[in-house]
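look at this record:
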Amino acid sequence: MERESLTAEGFEPSTRSLSETDSIQATRSLGETTSLMPRFEVEAREVEAPATLGERAAAFLFDYLFGMTFVLAYQVLLILMHVRETFPSLMVQSALLFFAAWVFNLFGLGGRNGPTVGKRIMGLAVLGTDGLPAGKIKLVMRGTLGYGVSALFLGLGFLSILWNPEGRSWHDRIFDTRVVKNQRT
């Protein structure tokens, strides 16, 4: 099959033949464009219900308690070992330990769809807006930097779940994710 291409002078016949992989479109005699790309049927997925603010807050509380367990255990260990730390030093160490436990909860314990300890208990999952599981790096960035952005302006980013029709917070919109009630657990 030969293809005619439009140039400045008019139609110019081409001696090159088309193959399926050669071109994405072919031009018919009347100027209609036809795609040569194969058509794929996409299976429709059920849209899972978004998690409510209360469910998300409860999951966050469980995640917070998970992190604080490590901090409390560390401080008890210091007391039992009779280690005397100054208050500012102890606060910095505790904050770093809490942050490490938080990242471990997100990255180490969270699978591909983000079931941290709190989300597992509450039956929630973090998915991309396409309905596929969010990647681990995206989950860590969402759970650290994204939470920081949502906490700005007195937590307005978290509260935006209430008036967003999709139930998404600022960190969900920044990282293109959504928290849903997980039907698979």
Remarks:
- Strands lie at 2-6, 11-17, 25-27, 33-35, 124-128, 177-181.
